[in-house]
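Example 4.3 (complexes with small molecules)
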Amino acid sequence: MNNPKVWFVGAGPGDPELITIKAKNLIEKADAILFAGSLVPKALTQWSKPNCLIQDSKGMALDDITDWLIEQADENKIVIRLQTGDPALYGALIEMVQPLDKAGIDVEVIPGISSAMAAAAASIESLTLPEVTQTVILTRVEGRTPMPAGESLKELAAHHSTLCLFLSITLLHKVSQELIEIGYAEDAPVTVVQKASWGEEEKIVKGTLSTIKKQCQAEKIASQAMIIISPTLGARDWDTLKKSKLYDASFSHRFRKGIQQDEG
Ligand code: SAH
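Answer. The structure with S-adenosyl-L-homocysteine bound is encoded below.
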């Protein structure tokens, strides 16, 4: 007999094909799936058995969710909590795991493709570029959830690295304003991707700190959107791109000897 267990599974950003094979295999075997219907399309449960219990958690509070999972989990059941993107990012993972730990239920997590990655893919952007920025900050701005000390947007943005802002689309005006206040150019590029990977429903808006709010209003984007602010945006059209050392013909590394000797 196995210990009762709940699987926290990353569903990816929306497109059912962006789920991992491991997650899909588990969904096929599942007896009960609780999916976060506000961001996970029901299509993600399409591989489940006909008798699998499927429930949307959209209207449930945390206690209802954990009670449901605890109730479902017994020795022989495969119980899945299906979450948007990756469960480790803004997914209330630990809040759900703690009551399960207390109830003596095993937990396993299957990672998923985060919407930050899907938004970069949708807009054909690289979040890092040599000599531009080598750092990505995944964050949000302060709304009803307070930010810990040292993590205000102004402090984080002082690095001028890539910022991927979750859960912040309704505060876009504040984002632009604060970045301009700390010295970002008004024409610094911003990309907003709503429903990245959701097919026809996906919207990509490219603008600047001073234009993006109006552009998003015009597109009626007020939820389910990733804001990317980065000096790398638009690099596809640059003719001054610095190439990465990895593919530089003169650069030697473990798998390839460079044309000129370079100890790099
Ligand atoms: N764990 C998730 C994030 C959950 S928080 C992940 O890894 O992606 C919810 C926020 O994620 C939304 O407010 C939005 O900012 C972002 N988001 C989720 N799905 C998205 C999608 N398909 N396209 C754009 N942003 C998305």
